[in-house]
Amino acid sequence: MKLKEIDQSTHAESAKHVNSSPITYPDERLVAFLQRSFGDRDNNKTKNALDIGFGSGRHIQLLIDFCFKTYGIEYTEEAIAVTAKRFRSENSLQKLLLGDYRTYKFDVKFDLVIAWGLIFYSTYSEMQKDLIAMANAVNDNGRVILNFRTTENWFYGLGKEVDKNTYLLDERARAYKGYVYTFLSLDEIKTLISEVGLKIECIERIDLWKNQLEERNSWYICELSKK
C-alpha cells in the first residue's frame, strides 16, 4: 500500500465517526494550555486561531469561548456541514475551510494553531511536512499546540509496519483496526520539531489506563513557538 493510499485510508475511517459519535466537550489539557498562554480573552479578540482537523467542532467551540477569531480546516465535507450547522450563529467563527492544510493558501497568519489528535495519523515520513505547514501558518509570536502518541500505547506495533514506527493497525487493535498510527519517543519528537524551525515552550505527558486498567493510552502534549 502506498503512503498516499494509507493517508486516504485513515481519513476515510475518521470521517465515519463525525456523525456517528461526535465528541462535544474539549480536552481538559488543551483547555489548561490555552488558559496559561491565552487567558486574556479581551486580548484574544484581535487574534486569529486555526483548528486543523476540527471534526465535529469541539475545539472550534473552545476557540470561540476564548474569544479568538476562529478558523477551521478539514478534509471532509461531512465535518464542514456538521460544524457549520452547529456554529451558524457564532459571529467569531470566520471560516470553515475544506482542503489539505499542508498545501492550503491561507489569507491570514495565525496567532494560534491547534492540531489535536491529528499528527499521529500521518506516517513518520510525512510528519515533517505536517510540522513545516504548521510553522508556516503561525505568525512569528504565535503558538502551535498538538499531541503525539508515545511508543507505550497498548496497541503500538499491532499491525503492519509501513514506515518507521508507523503501523496500519489490524484486528488486534480492536476499535483502532484500519487506522494508520505513528508512535514516537520523546527524543524523536524533539528532533522533528527542531528540524522545522520550531521549539518546545511547554511539554506534558498524559497516560490514561482504560478497560479495567488493561489498556494504556499515552500522549505527549507540546506547545511550540518559532525559534
From TrEMBL:
Q: Which domain of life is it from?
A: Bacteria
Domain Methyltransferase span(s) in chain numbering? 50-142
Question: Which ranges are annotated Basic and acidic residues under compositional bias?
Answer: 1-16
Q: Where is this region: Disordered?
A: 1-21
InterPro entries (UniProt xref): Methyltransf_25, SAM-dependent_MTases_sf
Protein name, please? Answer: Methyltransferase domain-containing protein
Q: Look up and give the organism this protein is from.
A: Pedobacter ginsengisoli
Q: What is the lineage of its organism?
A: Bacteria, Pseudomonadati, Bacteroidota, Sphingobacteriia, Sphingobacteriales
